[in-house]
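Quick one: structure tokens for this chain, please?
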Amino acid sequence: METIRWYEKAGLLEEPDRSASNYREYDKASLNRLTFIKRGRDLGFSLDQVSQLMNLTRNPGENCATVDAIAVQHLAAIDRKIADLTALRRELTDLVESCAGGSIGDCDILRALSPGSDHE
């Protein structure tokens, strides 16, 4: 519920009417918008991107080049993150494989975490 209220404060959802017992009552359009937001967030789009995409739905006859550009930009960001994570995984795998057991003082993993390490 806090997330939904946050979406309302961010302007992604309109604040719904209240019932006689003060419960929020969302109409079908609001539920559809909430589903749109959730799907966008599940795909990793930022709230700003979700907002842009949602605003673009107001013009169904327009060319979808802007939508494509937002998606391509997001895909490029995902690819950069994957590359960064792959490099991180490779480095950590090398550290784990270089660990021959022994004492804490001889631990390559801890050495890599220490200031002045050549792994920075």
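The chain has a mean pLDDT of 91.
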